Amino acid sequence: MKLGQATIKDIAKELNVSLSTVSRALKDYPGISSETKRKVKELAEKLNYRPNAIALSLRKSKSFTIGVIIPEVVHFFFSTVISGIEEVAFANGYNVILCQTNEKLQRELSSIEAMLDNQVDGLLVSYSKETEDFEHFTKLLKQNFPIVFFDRVPEIENTVNVTVNDFKGAYDATSHLINQGYKNIAHLAGPKNLTISRKRLDGYLAALQDHSIKQNPDWIIPCPIGTQEESFNFTKKLFENGKIKPDGIFASNDIAAAGAMMAVKSLGLKVPGDVGIVGFSDWQFSSMIDPPLSTVSQPGFQMGEKAISLLLEMINKKKDEIWSPKTVVLETELIIRKSSEKINKI
Amino acid sequence: MKLGQATIKDIAKELNVSLSTVSRALKDYPGISSETKRKVKELAEKLNYRPNAIALSLRKSKSFTIGVIIPEVVHFFFSTVISGIEEVAFANGYNVILCQTNEKLQRELSSIEAMLDNQVDGLLVSYSKETEDFEHFTKLLKQNFPIVFFDRVPEIENTVNVTVNDFKGAYDATSHLINQGYKNIAHLAGPKNLTISRKRLDGYLAALQDHSIKQNPDWIIPCPIGTQEESFNFTKKLFENGKIKPDGIFASNDIAAAGAMMAVKSLGLKVPGDVGIVGFSDWQFSSMIDPPLSTVSQPGFQMGEKAISLLLEMINKKKDEIWSPKTVVLETELIIRKSSEKINKI
DNA sequence: AACGTCACCGCAATCGATTGTGTTAATTTT
DNA sequence: AAAATTAACACAATCGATTGCGGTGACGTT
What we know:
The structure is a homodimer. Chain A folds into three domains: 8-51, Orthogonal Bundle (434 Repressor (Amino-terminal Domain)), CATH 1.10.260; 63-163 and 300-330, Rossmann fold (3-Layer(aba) Sandwich); 166-298 and 334-345, 3-Layer(aba) Sandwich (Rossmann fold), CATH 3.40.50.2300. Chain A contains twelve helices and twelve strands. Chain A has helices spanning 8-15, 19-26, 34-46, 53-60, 76-91, 105-117, 135-142, 166-179, 195-210, 228-241, 254-266, 300-315, and strands at 65-70, 95-100, 122-125, 147-150, 160-164, 185-189, 220-222, 248-251, 276-278, 295-297, 326-330, 333-335. In chain A, the strands form three sheets. A six-stranded parallel β-sheet of chain A has the order 2-1-3-4-5-11, sandwiched between helices. In chain A, strands 7-6-8-9 form a four-stranded parallel β-sheet, with helices on both faces. In chain A, β1, α5 and β2 form a beta-alpha-beta unit. In chain A, α1 crosses α3, α2 crosses α3 (34-46) and α10 packs across α11 (254-266). Chain A binds a DNA duplex through residues 1, 7-9, 17-24, 27, 29-33, 36, 51-52, 54-61. Chains A, B: InterPro entries: HTH_LacI, Lambda_DNA-bd_dom_sf, Peripla_BP/Lac1_sug-bd_dom, Peripla_BP_I. Chains A, B: Keywords: DNA-binding, Transcription, Transcription regulation. Chains A, B: Residues 6-60 form the HTH lacI-type domain.
């Protein structure tokens, strides 16, 4: 109303026909004379008529809106995923409602409530670090409400997920360090309750094992907060206190890797050479730091595209059709830069 | 319906009362016995009743949704602004619909259409690089539709804007370089049709003038694309071709600054020392590159907060009240890091 | 006994659009 | 000429909630 937008009623009144005639004329239904159709369409054009999406949503119980729940917007990987989501949504006439949880469970819960109130047709979720119970998701899934989880996927049944191959990414990164001559590799791990953290840890461990390197529990350092400062401090401690010092670091994300790199450099050690470092995610800055950081790139944009494509499929199924649980795994790519160059090259 | 969500009708039928009674009971209207209120509320609780926001939107011609139109999601500054927007929106019970234009005018136009169809209560806009005509905005503004422009604000009348003090930021950055001993300063400028580019250019020029340094038109290099490669190439050319070479670079954004830094280093020049560099925006990576980049930080989060606060004010005015045009200017802060250290310190 | 008051609640219009089911009138069929 | 068909349109229910107004009893008042 604020826009004084013309409605079907305005057209009907102006032309002295009924609402239904206008509605049908606009959509070329049979049973309306071509003369009437012409007049209706002309007037609609003239009044700049545009159907009220809210009214349609109410009528059809479908909002053409999907909700996206992510931990943080200001995060290179997640913003890339959002970008992919937005592209496909836009191309398909869907709207994207965004909520960030700031890694808080409480916020996750209320965001979901808000989105359901707004009748979103489905949800794309990457849950928060605090989330350990998935009741709020299973409740919805039981009611056949479409949800696709991406990146951080819960270990519950009958879900549709999109992840990257975290295990292989971590395995490749660690193996790469080993092949470059770095044998004493520490791991800066992510929060324990995230599947991705565990998978990356597993990949790291598997790589060590396959190269007959014994793991050192002291060298697996969880970084629950995820800031650069955190990894800087942990890395500094690790190198200052240990009897045997690591000569390689595989970090579960680039921020941690960058912090570690600074810590190592601040101790007068050379990267690469004294210490080789590989991160995870290929953030924008990773190629710009000194030395440029080797890392495992995740196809964020594709992940977004894939996730929403799956969601749209689910949404557009007949309501009696049940979708089958599945997990799409996207492959990572090891990006080799200077930070992991061979020891003897230096 | 997908959720089998309970409606007011369900409650009414179950309790054998009318719809209006249920509605009023739920909102503690007078004229309903406390006994009835109790029963209604109990059943509502039991059925997990939640009002249908779509129905409310239709009834009230208000969707509690605002649209955000930005050039790119994967952009540190913009994602920070989004974060600020989302926080305030969430706190006030508003939803945020997001569209990115990818710097395309066509996309901007259709995004606005889509948002209006969805009855957003207002728009937050940072327009695309392609946008030179603002007809699509003035049309809405004439109809008193609430719009707040942020960062990239159009030079048209009667708008409400939030910007940073680009002029002063640029002036400070350039003056800083001069004070550090760098007198021959080139400027990597932004796209010409953006006000922010012009303001930053003006600040740069004013600083030169105030220090009695003559400007060199060849040293003002527009970077319309905005990639690191672009500024890398332009900077390289600049240093290879010029007779007199610059010893300072003020870039209108950090990406360009980073590209310039790489170009300068690739030519064997030292940063700082041979060349001092200052960027603009304080991207996440700026403190991590080598040398850490001096830059002008923009309060993105605050900008988002302020922009949506203004928008909500406008939305909640009585419809006959007219808001007055205004521009809120947020101050920048010069962040001094190593890339602009004094010449003689080296 | 007749009337007023008040508590409590229901009816129906409304928001904008869709759609199944009438209802006309003209046209065709027999 | 009467009956059947059909084109072209209107009516009204519907989606879920809100809200002005009207209605119905149970009281008290005079």
